[in-house]
Write a structure and sequence with these properties.
Helix content is 39%, strand content 15%. The chain is of the alpha/beta class. Helix 2 runs antiparallel to helix 9, helix 3 runs parallel beside helix 9 and helix 4 packs across helix 8.
């Protein structure tokens, strides 16, 4: 059986170091807002080539804090992809703002620049984009639009640790970026975690205050903030795992290359292959008209898969005010996508086996 993803396996190479870090943290007895957090923040900022990084409790909070710090008038419009994980949209709602959903390009699954421009009104303040599946959005076109209409760009980089766009790291492609360290992400903690990266010192200071109850100094509160901090122990685990992120991403790229070169089946559409070495390959997502049949066929052959995602955000009960909207490309993508195993613990023979089985599939 090849599982879609085994978190037991992904953490196995680091067991000895993780146990040592646990013991050290336990003995030190400092658990929140300490030296381990500062160390990780400095390392992750330097990894993303940004001036600042602020650890927070999770990816959703990272995005929410980024938007709250802007102090836009209530109900300002924020452009978001219709084709994204729901957190991107929830962050806008949490911040008291209005998400305006925009269709993706059918080839990349990423927010389509020309559709962004059509959605802009006098109330639009920012574009919050998602580098979905680990592939960066079309930043040259999006940056030109943002400049023309004086909009901020924020990145949902929760699936894109280490991805680049024309050599620039995800996290450094807009005004600020939110990352998640949920255990299954390319850089995953042993629990929840997140971070914000940015280059502006005043934004960094605003995020630092918002994540800690809106507190400017101990027991002094300047605004209504969140309790959203990255624990010392998670920060220390992440500092360790960050050292291996590039090697793991390179291995992901190698598997992606094998899939792209060797999966040949007329009933299956592969993801874009033009930027293999820039993508973080958080997920390898294929498409077919016959998704459920392919999924059960692979399961019968011992191959675990997952669907990212089965129901589009605008069709969720939680977002009932958007249920009447129609986003045909987003809906089609949600009906057809299937994620096949791609992770740093997948063996070469397993990759070959998966390719062989997919090529034999009779769609
Ligand atoms: C995982 C994820 C998030 C949310 O991260 P959490 O840490 O679970 O809050 C946000 N956006 C995208 C695209 C994600 O994949």
């Amino acid at each position: 059986m090849i599982p879609f993803l085994s978190l037991q396996n992904t953490n196995k190479p680091y067991h000895d170091d993780l146990k040592r870090i646990f013991t050290e943290t336990l003995e030190k007895g400092w658990f929140i807002l300490g030296q381990e957090l500062v160390t990780f923040e400095n390392r992750f900022a330097s990894y993303c080539e940004t001036n600042f990084c602020l650890g927070v409790a999770n990816g959703l909070d990272a995005l929410t804090i980024i938007l709250k710090a802007c102090k836009y008038p209530p109900q300002s419009e924020i452009i978001v992809p219709a084709n994204t994980y729901i957190a991107t949209i929830l962050a806008v709602i949490n911040a008291g703002l209005k998400p305006v959903l925009v269709e993706p390009s059918q080839e990349t699954y990423l927010i389509a620049p020309n559709q962004i421009e059509l959605a802009i009104t006098t109330n639009t303040r920012a574009i919050m984009l998602t580098h979905l599946y680990g592939k960066c959005c079309e930043m040259t076109a999006i940056q030109a639009i943002a400049e023309k209409y004086q909009l901020h760009i924020f990145e949902d980089a929760a699936q894109a640790h280490g991805a680049t766009y024309l050599g620039v790291k995800a996290g450094n492609l807009g005004d600020a970026a939110g990352f998640s360290f949920y255990p299954s992400k390319n850089l995953g903690a042993l629990g929840d975690g997140g971070a914000i990266t940015c280059n502006s010192e005043s934004l960094a200071q605003a995020y630092r205050q918002l994540r800690n109850y809106g507190s400017s100094q101990k027991y002094v509160f300047d605004e209504v903030g969140l309790n959203s901090r990255l624990d010392e122990i998670q920060a220390a685990f992440l500092s360790l795992k960050l050292e291996y992120l590039d090697v793991e991403n390179q291995y992901r790229q190698k598997i992606a290359r094998s899939y792209l070169e060797q999966i040949q089946n007329p009933s299956i559409i592969l993801p874009p292959s033009n930027t293999i070495d820039e993508d973080a390959w958080h997920l390898f997502v294929i498409r077919t008209d016959n998704r459920d049949k392919l999924r059960s066929y692979l399961a019968e052959n011992g191959i675990g898969t997952d669907i990212h995602y089965p129901i589009p955000p605008h069709k969720q009960k939680a977002l009932s005010e958007f249920n009447h909207l129609s986003f045909p490309i987003t809906e089609k993508i949600h009906q057809e996508v299937l994620s096949i195993p791609l992770n740093p613990t997948l063996q070469e023979l397993e990759v070959e086996y998966i390719i062989e089985k997919i090529n034999y599939f009779n769609g």
